[in-house]
């Protein structure tokens, strides 16, 4: 009996040791922390993973493998990211999409974030062209953003010493801008629909980011045990049902005022409807320009475009009350250079300290704790190691932002590090919108919104602590990353 047991146990033990120390080598992957069978390195997993990843980078090299719970090659080194993910863009174009999550949330690989790798080039190209047509980079869109900025500060200026959570008004301003880009309508600043839409998204984020969602990608059969884990799938589906009903209504409203013979589309949905019509009239097959792709592109533009920008602006306000000296410098710069006239995007050239502040915000405030996964499209070589086609890659640019080898005291908030001889120094190592051919599609809009809104906040308002001690700068991390709720006091300036 004992001998039989040993016959089973000894090979099992040997297999476990070989797996633990040798599985990466056997699979031709770069070295990394030894993974446990089934759960890989999940015991070390937390959403704010950069510090753990930086430790592993120090131990295993500039690229390394982690199992979360499946294997992925992590690249979190500035030079390696540039040399490979940027320069060999096509090799890192494809994403390793979360198939189960895609099916639960989008009904399949549609939209503009997790779409089928075969349609990425076409849909990105179309989206970039359409977003440009509907106003990216235009003075008209800047006017809309400035109008919303003034609405926010006017409300804050009436707060009369009360404790203010800045989230609500920032969210309304950003939502209105993004909504008009997607659906063409300028909704009321206090639109309940927009607030509801954001609430739905907010309640979905923690569910999307739970460990259960990671495991169902690995073992899809686990989906049936949803009820044992607090029913995250069922709850996500309910949120998506409600979201989809609202999206359909918004698209129907856009269709009612859609004028196909206008020179340019008013919004993304109109651009999509024009493309569908063009194909139909030319007798061409609809291809990927079908209602599901339109609806999911709208959903993903909304999902990607609101919370990210709101989080960044919230962080700006929180850092202001944590660094009153920095706020005074910002106020002085804007008073001296701009005075009372309207802020314009072009003022970036004459506001070096404001640009330095925002670059420091972009360094510490990445909005995705773990970047989206890519998948190599062909065999390649990184750091002398062969990486096979189809390997999952995590281009974790935020590791660079927090790497003490790149930035002295990386946890310390210091706009001055971006100033040299009174001039702002743009830092190519800071890439909050990611890198390569899947970088953020909304970067020009987001940068413009953040600059115009933030500079207007400084011009018109003074932010201070409610009590004596400012709220800490700590992050809630799940699928997204943003600072914990906080309140401030806001007094009018000028
Ligand atoms: C401060 C604001 C924002 C930040 C920091 C940000 C950051 C990011 C990051 C890190 C990614 C992932 C890139 C990757 O997979 O490597 C991303 C993707 C994306 N973002 Fe943004 N984003 C912001 C605002 C926006 C806005 C305003 C829009 C559009 C209205 C937008 C649309 C998208 C889309 C469509 C993708 C997916 C691109 C693709 O997979 O090909 N984002 N963003």
TrEMBL record:
GO terms for molecular function: heme binding; iron ion binding; oxidoreductase activity, acting on paired donors, with incorporation or reduction of molecular oxygen, reduced flavin or flavoprotein as one donor, and incorporation of one atom of oxygen. It comes from the Eukaryota. Heme binds at residue 440. Signal peptide: none annotated. Its cofactor is heme. InterPro entries: Cyt_P450 (IPR001128), Cyt_P450_CS (IPR017972), Cyt_P450_E_grp-I (IPR002401), Cyt_P450_sf (IPR036396), Cytochrome_P450_fam2 (IPR050182). GO terms for biological process: organic acid metabolic process; xenobiotic metabolic process. Belongs to the cytochrome P450 family. Keywords: Heme, Iron, Metal-binding, Monooxygenase, Oxidoreductase. Gene3D superfamilies: Cytochrome P450. It comes from Pristionchus entomophagus. One of its GO terms (cellular component) is cytoplasm. This is Cytochrome P450.
